[in-house]
């Protein structure tokens, strides 16, 4: 009985064309699947390694984004305050011009001196003008340091933007994935 099994195993089996094709295609597909799995595994390892290596850079970038949001919010508050102060200064400037015009009107009307009958009105116009000028000057004295703080905040914001751009470049630069890409060739393969 063992001899019959041995003889059968020694006999060369000949496969017909469809069976040979199935075996060949099975090996071919198995080879493709193996190559895809190997490249997939290598890409996965590279992807995880790159993300791990750049996690500090990405965390730094997120921190800078938060600082930018905070700085931007502070800048918006400063801008609102400065715009309100500018409107007040513009209003005072118009009032000062109107007051100066009224004083000049008195002086044009009475070029040789203000008569005592209108001197009280003239004096009141000058006092009002001086109060407006004093208010304007006080507001300018408060506006200038606020504007300097605003300019410093803008400079600080721009510096953080530069840092964030550098961090973004560092966190995103150099990604490398080993992905097989078929390239064209002068030689074509022929299936026989």
If you had to describe this structure to a student in words, what would you say it looks like?
The protein is an all-alpha fold. It is 82% helix and 0% strand. It has helices at residues 2-10, 17-53, 55-109, 116-172. The longest helix is centred in the last third of the chain and has 57 residues, at 116-172.
Notable features of this structure?
mainly alpha, 82% helix, disordered N terminus, 4 helices, 192 residues
Residue windows where pLDDT falls under 50 for at least 5 positions: 1-6, 180-192
In helices, the fraction of residues equals: over 70%
Q: Whole-number average pLDDT? A: 79
What fraction of residues sit in β-strands?
Answer: under 5%
What structural class should be given to the helix and strand makeup?
Answer: mainly alpha
What order do the helices and strands come in, and which of them pair?
Layout: H1 2-10, H2 17-53, H3 55-109, H4 116-172
In short:
The chain is an all-alpha fold and 192 residues long.
């Amino acid at each position: 009985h063992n001899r019959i099994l041995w003889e059968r195993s020694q006999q060369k089996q000949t496969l017909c064309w469809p069976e040979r094709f199935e075996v060949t295609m099975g090996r071919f597909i198995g080879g493709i699947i193996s190559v895809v799995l190997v490249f997939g595994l290598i890409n996965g390892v590279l992807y995880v390694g790159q993300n791990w290596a750049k996690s500090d850079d990405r965390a730094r970038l997120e921190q800078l984004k938060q600082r930018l949001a905070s700085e931007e919010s502070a800048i918006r508050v400063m801008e609102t305050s400065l715009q309100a102060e500018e409107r007040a200064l513009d209003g005072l400037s118009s009032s000062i011009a109107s007051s100066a015009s009224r004083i000049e009107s008195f002086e044009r009307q009475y070029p040789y001196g203000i008569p005592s009958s209108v001197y009280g009105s003239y004096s009141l116009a000058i006092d009002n003008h001086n109060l407006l000028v004093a208010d304007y000057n006080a507001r300018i004295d408060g506006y200038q340091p606020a504007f300097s703080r605003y300019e410093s905040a803008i400079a600080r914001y721009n510096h953080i933007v530069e840092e964030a751009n550098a961090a973004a470049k560092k966190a995103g630069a150099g990604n490398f994935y080993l992905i097989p890409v078929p390239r064209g060739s002068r030689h074509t393969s022929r299936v026989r």
